[in-house]
Amino acid sequence: MASNAVIRTGLVGFGLAGRVFHEPFLATNPAFRLEVIATGNPERQEEARARGDYEIVRAPDALLGRDLDLIVLASPPAAHFAQATAALESGAAVVVDKPFAASVAEAEQLIDTAERVGRPLIVFQNRRWDGDFLTAKKLIESGRLGQVFRFESTFERYAGAARDRWHDTATVAQGAGITFDLGSHLVDQALHLFGPATLERAELRVVRPGGPSEDDAFLSLAHVSGVTSHITVSRMAAQTGPRFRVLGTDSAYMVYGLDNQEDALKLGARPTDAGFGVVPEEDWGLVGGEKGAAPTPHPTERGNYAGFYAGVAKTLTTGAPSPVDPREALATMRILELAHQLSA
């Protein structure tokens, strides 16, 4: 594509992912023109119409043959393989939500297909642009913490009893379970910071009675770089731990709470709004604690989910490296799939 060309885009799915994490960024980035949204749900069709002048279709296949430059898949993981294959074969680049397939075998085939047809396959890992993660990354890269030896990453919520929704009714074989859902983000973040790792320990459990997939999990990773990562994800944590605790030989960083971009988007915010992604001082993390010194507040970087689609635009128009390489996402998938095997 020419560097000044508008990226003609179609979106599959208008549930939480499509409505909150994709449409707002495609609609506000002038590099993209979101033309068509596929959803079979009548209520979601009306929501999509209210958002913009989009063509609404019922079936994902209706996006094929339209000469779209990009197809974004915000559909359930079990549908990703067939939909991404068809989109790539049609000549479109593909952005696919995590986990980008329901198995390692499917993920490998998708990468092979993308390479064969010569179209970009980009995995949506927006939490690389969480403000707290950007802060931890900056502190680590600056050397402020010294040599990091342990990285603790926790993403916990309390969902209560299971409900009639995909997350609570789908099986692991369909790409469900909190390990594939939230674990995809946290393992990706750990590998992004510290490089390749092996899975040393996995504890996956179903806490809510009758659930078809796990809702609580702990993973321990041993990175080749020498860092140990402890990953905790849960839908049943009535009290939550720190989002990050990063221990280094010279200092430490700890921060509580979740990045505020998701909640703002759910309330109707747009990424171009003034103050979007800015973290108030009372929510900053703490740095310090070495030699008895009291930890002090450290400013949290501004969250920037828009950075993902800015990277996608550069990839498609200039050939720049993908913001999330599918082989990085494949490495995450290998760890998550092994976690299920070890805990079976």
Low-confidence stretches: none
Task: Look at the structure and name the CATH superfamily of the largest domain.
Answer: Dihydrodipicolinate Reductase, domain 2
State the separation between the terminal residues, measured CA to CA: 47 Å
**In sequence order, what are the helices and strands, one letter per element?**
EHEHEEHEHEHEHHEEEEEHEEHH
Major β-sheet strand ordering: 8-9-10-7-11-12-13-14
Kindly estimate the percentage of residues that lie in beta strands according to DSSP: 15-25%
The CATH topology of the largest domain turns out to be Dihydrodipicolinate Reductase, domain 2
The overall number of domains is: 2
Q: Describe it for me?
A:
This protein is α/β, with parallel strands linked by helices and 344 residues long. The chain folds into two domains: 7-125 and 308-322, 3-Layer(aba) Sandwich (Rossmann fold); 127-303 and 334-343, 2-Layer Sandwich (Dihydrodipicolinate Reductase, domain 2). It is built from ten helices and 14 strands. The strands form two sheets. The protein has an eight-stranded mixed β-sheet. Strand 9 and strand 10 (228-234) form a beta hairpin. Helix 7 (178-194) packs across helix 10 (326-343). The longest helix has 18 residues, at 326-343. The mean pLDDT is 95.
